[in-house]
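Recall from the previous chapter that SMILES is a line notation for molecules. Here it describes pyridoxal-5'-phosphate.
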Amino acid sequence: MTFIPVLKPRVADANIMLPHIRMIDDACCYTNHGPQERMLRTQFAAALGDRAVQEISLYSSGTAALIGAMQAWNLPAGTKCLVPAWTFIGSACAVAQAGLEPVIVDVDPESWAIDPDVIEEMATDQNIKACLIVSPFGATVPYPELSDIQERTGMQILVDGAASFDFVHKLAETRLDLPVPLMVSLHATKLVSSIEGGMVVTSNADMTRRMISWSNFGIFDDDPVTQIGTNAKLSEIHAAYGQHSLTSWPEIRQTLLTIADGYVEQITARLPDIAFAPNIREGMVSSSFNIILPKPFPQLGHQLAANGIGTRRWWKDGVHRFPAFKSYAAGPLPVTEDLAARTIGLPFYVGMTSDTVETVVAALETALADQSVSAG
Ligand SMILES: *Cc1c(COP(=O)(O)O)cnc(C)c1O
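With both inputs in hand, we obtain:
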């Protein structure tokens, strides 16, 4: 029995990378915003609706990019910042690492993101000055409303679109002005990958300047160093991998879309009680494929693994359930609790065949039938 993993990261083959590595060797420039990094920024700018290169900045990881963006807000240490409970723990880590106090809130049961009305309410009631809103597994977030809230209330908003290149790509193509910055992770498990890396896109030029400066010890050109930075630059090797991945994006997207469609078709036909994550309902491609079970089934992961199928509860029990973040929950989080108990990620990667999809759905069907029998 060959094991079907939940994910199979894929970057460019060594043979494809060799000429790039020689080019880096010839330039004798391995990092510090060299030619490869500039090329990747140029390519992203072109891909995202012919934007100015100055609107794109790159970092050593998605988490570093989030921290860089939040520290660029220049808010006093300890300022409260909303973050959803239903996200990857990295979102909340970034808030804390940026010197802000996470206020963990629940999400909307339909969109799986923080409801803009909640953001606005909390901004007035509780003196909350910032919000990290997460695009859940690549689903749309209401960008015009978020921009409007930022503009009207002065609250700082950042979109964690780590696995959402498809959404960010579509948004940036159709909208010139991007006052609310968007972060996309370039991690190997995400859609477009430099192995490790992160990108921020925003039309707020001051903010981009502060972020880049932060990622380079506070240094930007010959400006006096007015902020304490760190080292969060993207290396030339990583940038070269990123270029190749971005070139393959249309193909990657189409492949993943076909696999997702195959799942939807088979699951809808055979297991009509199963629902799909919001990005799937919207036709937005992400790097994971999440289903929602009609009721909790804690043993499902183990049962499928015993049948040679990998699954993952990508966001575990919610951020508030990690001991390190327990004290930051704003209150009860019933939607997250419910989603965490019923959501599971199925195998999803480029190279998966329709037979594999079939195998996974059949095993899922058997496991769910066994569960109903054993539950009487
Ligand atoms: C992957 C992910 C991150 C972290 O990105 P890295 O590039 O791995 O640092 C943050 N937030 C969300 C929602 C993610 O999925």
